[in-house]
Amino acid sequence: MRLSCIIVMKIAIFFCLSVFIFKPLKAQRSTMSDEELISVDYEIFGRVQGVFFRKYTQAEGKKLGLVGWVQNTSAGTVQGQLQGPRGKVKEMQEWLRSTGSPKSRISKAEFKNEKTIDSLEHSSFNIVK
């Protein structure tokens, strides 16, 4: 009798775990994978060099789960590429447009060559020197 009670309790616990933990994770994964991937190039103007803009951009991109790259230009701007789910890329675009690093002063943000992609072309978010 005790053995059957233990088995029933284990089955009940497994059922609860599968309903309340595993299914929401599965739903979350499928929602993320259903969102189309995009790639967009950007260039940021203003006081964006010498203020850790690339470091903060890389950190924000990683936080959002994006891949791509960022680099300084000889014209004094910062440019790069973002890739990831459309919603996260749009969040990053807004961050580049209005936030940046604490000491930066953004005067303009340009986004070009936005396109849908089948898979990510980068494996991480890199600072190019």
TrEMBL record:
Reactions it catalyzes: an acyl phosphate + H2O = a carboxylate + phosphate + H(+)
Leading EC class: hydrolase
Biological source species: Oryzias melastigma
Top-level taxonomic group: Eukaryota
Lineage per the UniProt record: Eukaryota, Metazoa, Chordata, Craniata, Vertebrata
Record's protein name: Acylphosphatase
Family classification: Belongs to the acylphosphatase family.
Keywords: Hydrolase
Signal peptide as annotated in the record: none
Statement: the UniProt record of this protein carries the keyword Hydrolase: yes
